[in-house]
Amino acid sequence: MGLRVLAAMSGGVDSAVAAARVAEAGHDVTGVHLALSANPQSHRTGARGCCTIEDSRDARRAADVIGIPFYIWDMAERFQRDVVDDFVAEYAAGRTPNPCLRCNEKIKFAAVLDRALALGFDAVATGHHARLVDGVLSRSVDQGKDQSYVLGVLTREQLGHAMFPLGDSTKAEVRAEAARRGLTVADKPDSHDICFIADGDTRGFLAQRLGAAEGPIVDEAGEVVGSHHGAHGFTVGQRKGLHIDRPAADGRPRYVLSIEPVSNTVTVGPRSALEVTSITCRRPVWNGPSAADGELTVQLRAHGEVYGCRFTEADGELRVELDRPATGVAAGQAAVLYSGRTVIGSATITGAA
């Protein structure tokens, strides 16, 4: 007997094919589009953004082709509070958040899953490129599209009610299948960057909400080498847009090494100064098997490099020691631990050395 499945349909090709596969497998599927913006745009800007009126119409058309009921759920207020406001607050505190990860945690697999279960659904299906076998999260077969990192914050219970039908397919295969099924989104561009910043101007978005506050840019010795209009416009590892008045003596480029929101100071230095081998984290979430059965690695950014590692946990804090130096490790990002290709847990980065 099939399950009652709520298919989250963004209006893109991945979620449409995911919903079609779940329905074809014999489950009782209902499609739902999440209205996450209080004032959605009429049209997308190239491949940027999501949650537009066009996206909701694309999702409805896909549901019609698949032959499943379709609804729109207004999640704008929850999204504003748990994702957008959190994003702004994290930057104001000198950290670099990942809003896609927060959306999965707080919206798709908290608010939506909770409502789905209350309505009698057994599971929520999404178009994420990841594999789920017996409740265990693993990487997609398409390494370039793998999204297990942004799902690494989910709990075992949440994963137990999740379905990721695309994990065994490449993106090219998904698009080809969409075309065969007659889904008009087969060639629709992927959304990218931050969905609620459609023009891609993160610094401008933050400046509108946090205001301008001039402060110094200093080198490792504390010498002022430039100025800025808000430390919230920077992230660790950033190279471009630093507005440095005094170039380095050796002529090499400078990178953001740290951000101090209280003094509104941005410290810059050479790339070598970004290298770290020890990372501290908080709020560990253990959602997979033990690390004994595979090579232990950690991923520190979405689609970032992976590093061999070892870790220890004590008093709610996780310390991860890397086998080789990493650069651009920013507080607020997630450290997702893998045993082989399987996720074993995650935690929020608080510092690195």
Features:
single chain, 353 residues, alpha/beta, six-stranded antiparallel beta barrel, five-stranded parallel sheet, 8 helices
Summarize the structure.
The chain has 353 residues and is α/β, with parallel strands linked by helices. It has eight helices and 17 strands. The model has no long low-confidence stretch (mean pLDDT 91).
SSE series: EHEHEHHEEEHHEHHEEEEEEEEEE
Largest sheet strand order: 12-15-14-13-16-17
Largest sheet: 6 strands, antiparallel, barrel
Total of DSSP H or I helical runs spanning 4+ residues: 8
- Shape verdict: globular
How would you describe this protein?
- With 353 residues, the protein is an alpha/beta fold.
- It has helices spanning 13-24, 53-66, 76-92, 99-118, 148-151, 156-160, 171-180, 202-210; strands at residues 4-8, 28-35, 70-74, 123-125, 130-133, 136-139, 162-163, 215-218, 224-228, 255-260, 265-269, 276-286, 296-299, 306-314, 317-326, 334-339, 342-352.
- The strands form 4 sheets. Strands 12-15-14-13-16-17 form a 6-stranded antiparallel β-barrel. The chain has a 5-stranded parallel sheet with strand order 3-2-1-4-7, sandwiched between helices. The protein has a 4-stranded mixed sheet with strand order 9-8-11-10, with no helix packed on it.
- β1, α1 and β2 (28-35) form a beta-alpha-beta unit.
- α1 (13-24) packs parallel to α2, α1 (13-24) packs across α7 and α3 packs antiparallel against α4 (99-118).
- The mean pLDDT is 91.
